[in-house]
């Protein structure tokens, strides 16, 4: 099975249920654990909390942690202790969202008055490892941008 599909698409529309109210409640319950993300003069008040990655508070790009390639970093990624504290979100990611392998999965937070500078997360345009299956029984639309690092 292919791990990545090249795409020029700006988003992927999936017709699957998303328990967003419950997921937001889980993130809000952990609000004191969020740590700054890309804090500089152009971005401030932007915070992150890693559910799946190199550690619950490791949410920067893989090269910050000594990796030369994203694929190498992704081999070392795991479900962090945050995953245990947000069971609805984790269950949805593991059982509902059509993805075979995850890289970084994070809650992102923009505090009141915060700013996210214009940026690009990757120059590689990929849709990452989509599972096959029939999701037509679910009725809540979900818009997802899935970008993969290599």
Q: In total, how many domains does the architecture comprise? A: 1
| Straight-line distance between termini | 17 Å
Structural class: alpha+beta
Oligomer: single chain
What coarse outline follows from CA principal-axis ratios?
Answer: globular
Which value, in Å, is the CA radius of gyration? 16 Å
Unreliable parts: 128-150
Number of strands: 8
Largest sheet: 4 strands, antiparallel
What is the mean predicted local confidence, pLDDT? 76
Name the helix and strand elements from N-terminus to C-terminus, one letter apiece.
Answer: EEHEEHEHHEEE
What is the share of helical residues? 10-25%
Number of helices: 4
- Assess the beta-strand content as a share of residues: 25-35%
Secondary-structure map:
Layout: E1 4-6, E2 12-15, H1 20-29, E3 35-36, E4 44-53, H2 70-75, E5 78-79, H3 81-85, H4 87-95, E6 105-115, E7 126-128, E8 141-144
Antiparallel strand pairs: 1-7, 2-8, 3-4, 4-5, 4-6
Describe this structure in words.
With 150 residues, this protein is of the alpha+beta class. It has one domain (4-144). Helix content is 20%, strand content 26%. The chain contains four helices and eight strands, in the order E-E-H-E-E-H-E-H-H-E-E-E. Strands 3, 4, 5 and 6 form a four-stranded antiparallel beta sheet that branches. The chain has a two-stranded antiparallel sheet with strand order 1-7. A hairpin with a 7-residue loop joins strand 3 and strand 4.
């Amino acid at each position: 099975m292919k791990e990545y599909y090249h795409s020029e698409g700006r988003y992927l529309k999936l017709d699957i249920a998303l328990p967003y109210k419950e997921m937001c409640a889980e993130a809000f319950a952990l609000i004191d654990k969020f740590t700054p993300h890309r804090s500089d003069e152009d971005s401030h008040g932007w915070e992150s909390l890693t559910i799946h990655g190199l550690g619950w508070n490791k949410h920067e790009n893989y090269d910050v942690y000594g990796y030369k390639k994203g694929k190498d970093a992704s081999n070392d990624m795991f479900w962090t202790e945050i995953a245990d504290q947000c069971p609805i979100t984790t269950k949805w990611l593991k059982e509902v969202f059509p993805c075979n392998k995850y890289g970084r999965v994070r809650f992102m937070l923009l505090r009141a008055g915060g700013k996210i500078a214009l940026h690009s997360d990757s120059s590689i345009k990929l849709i990452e490892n989509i599972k096959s299956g029939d999701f037509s029984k679910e009725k809540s639309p979900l818009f997802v941008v899935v970008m993969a690092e290599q």
